[in-house]
From TrEMBL:
Top EC class for this record: transferase
Family: Belongs to the FGGY kinase family.
Protein name: Glycerol kinase
Annotated GO MF terms: ATP binding; glycerol kinase activity
Domain Carbohydrate kinase FGGY C-terminal: 264-452
GO annotation, cellular component aspect: cytosol
Record key words, sorted: ATP-binding, Glycerol metabolism, Kinase, Nucleotide-binding, Transferase
Annotated EC: 2.7.1.30
Originating gene: glpK
Catalytic activity: glycerol + ATP = sn-glycerol 3-phosphate + ADP + H(+)
Swiss-Prot/TrEMBL GO biological process terms: glycerol catabolic process; glycerol-3-phosphate metabolic process
Native source species: Microbacterium paludicola
Residues involved in ATP binding: T12, T13, S14, T268, G312, Q316, G413
CDD domains, sorted: ASKHA_NBD_FGGY_GK
Length: 504
């Protein structure tokens, strides 16, 4: 009998395969980073072929580490960086261009062009999203308009589009030899093309963007059998049975199944999701309306989301671009060499500002510098920026929901940083709670897959697996919190209105 489920977590900086048991505990992990490609300022790319090679490798590592084979695996779940766009040739299986990553800002001119008729919220009542470089729809347009021969191939029906879940699924199920071209409702809801009510591609919006319908994957639920791994795979004949975009997967892994429940994931960026149940709620405070999950034929669950572009990747920037740390965990040690931020505030608007501001004209800014400031203050300001940005998003959630969040469930790589979690509780004024299994993104994908094949009986089984690991209580007084927030918001204002027509 198969006693385990494997999740493929195709993330922004790495691909992982994690094997879980019935209690939702991690059995083994395989992980491999892929190259971050920066051809020009604001451009971020990945090599889809490298990603697929890494996915195959990490599956092997996870199986070998646990001394398991495909016969031990009941199902495969996939979770992924949601808005990163891959366009490939359906005949050769080769990408026509690198994957354009969700952080990439090159499509701003396309956004501006589309917004001339109706503004940036032109399609928001239908798709839940403003026009922004963040989403995958404008990235497809850029490829069709800038890659030689792409438009002609697309019009002839020879090109396929997918976010990285679709790319992995298609390759895992056979690629050019019968690969399944599909995505789930959560990823489809991040393209700018899916009608939130019907869960179908909108032909009129696709036509407005100039994207042929033939490129688009089939939209399926988040928990069903899409196909089986092909014969050359280490997982051959194992059903692929769950797909959730990474933030929705983390919400599912946190067992936030009910209306009013939420989580905040600290990864490359930060993403807070607030479950609105079966109701589509349109934000008045800069949040996105998105699909939370859909299990087979059951009703769709929706969510409000606050998306922050740069959090964990800011620490990566300190390591790779500035060189003031040699590994990401060192940032906490460096930050604690100083008692406070020394008046330094860091607004990491490398890709503009996402929620709740949506200011593509913003750029990164470090303010409040004096001769007193040192690299410890910069490290501390970087960590604090993660917490301040989260506070901005939670203020928006509270305003939209009409009730204040009473505690914040957290997950992702950065929640291992105790100093950050304490400051997060301080600046929010509410408890911050970390679960025993912090890898909730992969866990959520595993849960979706396991539900589809009967490995878990239902949501009650999953909720019973959730356990609290640690809780941080706020220790900052109200006056100090208000002072810090006032200075942070002044810093945010300084980052805005930076990009002029002649600024790259």
């Amino acid at each position: 009998m198969a006693d385990y489920v494997i999740a493929i977590d195709q993330g922004t900086t790495s691909s992982r395969a994690i094997i879980f048991d019935k209690k939702g505990s991690i059995v083994s992990t395989g992980q491999k980073e892929h190259e971050q490609i920066f051809p020009k300022p604001g451009w971020v790319e990945h090599d889809p072929l490298e990603i697929w090679r890494n996915v195959q490798e990490v599956i092997g590592i996870a199986l070998a580490t646990a001394d398991l084979t495909r016969h031990d695996i009941a199902a495969v779940g996939i979770t992924n960086q949601r808005e990163t766009a891959v366009v490939w040739d359906r005949t050769t299986g080769k990408p026509v261009y690198n994957a354009i990553v969700w952080q990439d800002t090159r499509t701003q001119s396309i956004v501006d062009r589309l917004a001339q008729d109706g503004g940036v919220e032109r399609f928001k009542p239908i798709v839940g999203l403003p026009l922004a470089t963040y989403f995958s729809g404008t990235k497809i347009v850029w490829i069709l308009e800038n890659v030689e021969g792409a438009r002609e191939k697309a019009e002839a029906g020879d090109l396929m589009f997918g976010t990285t879940d679709s790319w992995v699924l298609w390759n895992l199920t056979g690629g050019t030899d019968g690969g399944v071209h599909a995505t789930d409702v959560t990823n489809a809801s991040r393209t700018l093309f899916m009608d939130l009510e019907t869960l179908e591609w909108r032909d009129d919006i696709l036509e407005t963007f100039g994207v042929p319908r033939s490129m688009m994957p089939e939209i399926r639920s988040s928990s069903e059998v899409y196909g089986a791994a092909e014969s050359s795979s280490l997982l051959r004949e194992t059903p692929i049975a769950g797909i959730l975009g990474d933030q929705q997967a983390a919400t599912f892994g946190q067992a936030a199944f009910q209306t009013g429940e939420s989580k905040n994931t600290y990864g490359t960026g930060n993403f807070l999701i607030f479950n609105t149940g079966e109701e589509i709620v349109h934000s008045k405070n800069g949040l996105l309306t998105t699909v939370g999950y859909k299990l087979g034929d059951q009703p769709t669950h929706y969510a409000l989301e606050g998306s922050i572009a740069v959090t964990g990747s800011l620490i990566q920037w300190l390591r790779d671009q500035l060189g003031i740390i040699s590994s990401a965990p060192e940032v906490e040690k460096l930050a604690t060499t100083v008692e406070d931020n020394g008046g330094v505030y860091f607004v990491p608007a490398f890709s503009g500002l996402y929620a709740p501001y949506w200011r593509p004209d913003a750029r990164g800014a470090i303010v409040g510098l004096t001769r007193y400031a040192n690299k410890g203050h910069i490290a501390r300001a970087a960590l604090e920026a993660v917490a301040f940005q989260t506070r901005d998003v939670i203020d928006a959630v509270n305003a939209d929901a009409g009730v204040d969040l009473t505690e914040l469930k957290v997950d992702g790589g950065m929640v291992a940083n105790d100093a950050l979690m304490q400051f997060q509780a301080d600046v929010l004024g509410v408890p911050v709670v970390r679960p025993v299994v912090a890898e909730t993104t992969a866990l959520g994908a595993a849960y979706a897959a396991g539900l589809a094949v009967g490995f878990w009986a239902g949501l009650d089984d999953l909720a019973a697996n959730w356990q609290e690991d640690r809780r941080w209580e706020s220790s900052m007084d109200d006056a100090e919190r208000d002072r810090q927030l006032r200075l942070w918001r002044k810093a945010v204002e300084k980052s805005m209105d930076w990009v002029d027509d002649d600024v790259k």
